[in-house]
Design a protein that fits this description.
- The chain is an alpha/beta fold.
- It has helices at residues 31-49, 80-86, 88-91, 96-101, 132-138, 155-169, 180-183, 223-236, 258-269, and strands at 11-15, 18-22, 27-28, 64-73, 104-109, 143-145, 172-174, 176-177, 187-191, 194-202, 217-218, 241-247, 274-278, 286-289, 292-295, 300-302, 312-321, 326-336, 339-342, 347-352.
- Strands 4, 5, 6, 7, 16, 17, 18, 19 and 20 form a 9-stranded mixed beta sheet that branches. A 6-stranded mixed beta sheet has the order 9-10-12-13-15-14, covered by helices on one side.
- The longest helix has 19 residues, at 31-49.
- The chain is globular and about 45 Å long.
Length: 353
């Protein structure tokens, strides 16, 4: 039996191998009793202080998550007059109902939204009003791809302002960050246990603009960097579907380049579920590599170009199901006076498991 020093004048007694000592103001207990009480006291304190942990979300086979993707949205040049006099809501009037049926809507924002005027020295310079970010959210847009060749038209200050105005309006910027790590970080969309990661990047060389990894900017990775980032994410999150939104290709060309096709194949090998592309301003073929749909270019969406081919457009629709399958289809759109108008029933591409 282990003994403890006790204060003068205290009384004590021994019960078996436990020694109890009563001092004027305290109890000193044998080591076995002390350990027993401390353990159970700590257990009940932890129960009282911790709120119940909610169970992880379960995925039902009947659950689904639908994301719509559109091409280039320009709110300047020939579109500005309409936006100023008739409003952003008018521009998206024909597609707003289908936007609101989806869980998320991703547009390619082809201009900065800023009241900061600090143009970069380049041929085409666009700018939308900062106040229009809230109007874009009101028509059902939830995410805006910023990794393209025009969100930087008013420099890094304009780029930062655009991301801030979007976020304040409730629209999540894609492909933007304060440094390269943030720019390459995906945005997660989750519903009923289904998780989708959106990566956004551009493979273009941008006029009078350089990539600075420690400054605010858009995602401009090399192909190997893009593949490494996605491969690393997939290895850590194998149950998350990955969609890559790319601003790539050659303007006004009806087909993707050999290099684009090669990159698409490499992306499929990293576990990507789908690729959504834009920049050419015209539609390009939809391909399937294994189980991965590739929309090489979904064209313009809100735009002022007069070329008939530039007025043909589509909305790419991806529906992720609780049983792990992916349904991909497209909604045909015609651009009339800068406004997208739905033309006919969706065309189903395929179901992927």
């Amino acid at each position: 039996m282990k003994r403890y020093s006790i204060a003068q004048g205290a009384r004590f007694w021994v019960l078996g191998d436990r020694c109890w000592v009563m001092a004027d103001r305290c109890w000193v207990m044998g080591v076995r009793v002390m350990k027993f009480i401390i353990f159970h006291l700590s257990f009940f304190i932890s129960l009282a202080s911790c709120s119940p942990t909610p169970p992880p979300p379960t995925t039902s086979s009947s659950s689904s998550l639908t994301i719509l993707f559109t091409g280039d949205v320009l709110l300047d040049r020939g579109i500005r007059n309409t936006a100023e006099h008739r409003g952003i809501g008018y521009l998206f009037e024909e597609v707003t109902p289908i936007f609101r049926e989806a869980d998320a809507v991703v547009v390619n924002l082809e201009c900065p939204l800023t009241d900061t005027i600090s143009p970069v020295n380049k041929k085409y310079i666009f700018r939308g009003d900062a106040r229009w970010a809230k109007d874009l959210r009101s028509v059902g847009i939830t995410h805006a791809a910023m990794a393209n060749n025009h969100t930087n038209d008013h420099g890094r200050r304009g780029l930062q302002a655009t991301a801030r105005h979007l976020a304040d309006a409730g629209i999540t910027p894609l492909g933007y960050g304060r440094n390269f790590s943030e720019q390459m970080s995906p945005i997660l969309i989750e519903k009923d246990g289904i998780s989708v990661a959106l990566f956004n990047a551009t493979t273009l060389t941008i006029e009078n603009w350089c990539r600075l990894d420690d400054k605010p900017g858009i995602a401009q990775p090399t192909e190997d960097e893009l593949l490494d980032e996605i491969g690393d994410f997939h290895s850590k999150h194998p149950d998350t579907h990955i969609v890559v939104v790319l601003h790539w290709g050659v303007e006004f060309q009806p087909y993707p380049t050999i290099r684009q096709r090669a990159l698409a194949h490499r992306l499929s090998e990293t576990g990507v579920a789908a690729i959504i592309g834009h920049h050419p301003h015209v539609l390009q073929p939809i391909d399937t590599i294994g189980k991965m749909p590739v929309y090489y270019s979904i064209g313009n969406f809100v735009f002022d170009q007069k070329n008939p081919k530039s007025r043909e457009s589509m909305i790419a629709r991806l529906t992720f199901h609780g049983d792990g399958t992916l349904s991909a289809d497209s909604i045909s759109v015609r651009i009339e006076q800068g406004r997208p108008v739905i033309r006919k029933s969706p065309t189903t591409i395929s179901n992927m498991e």
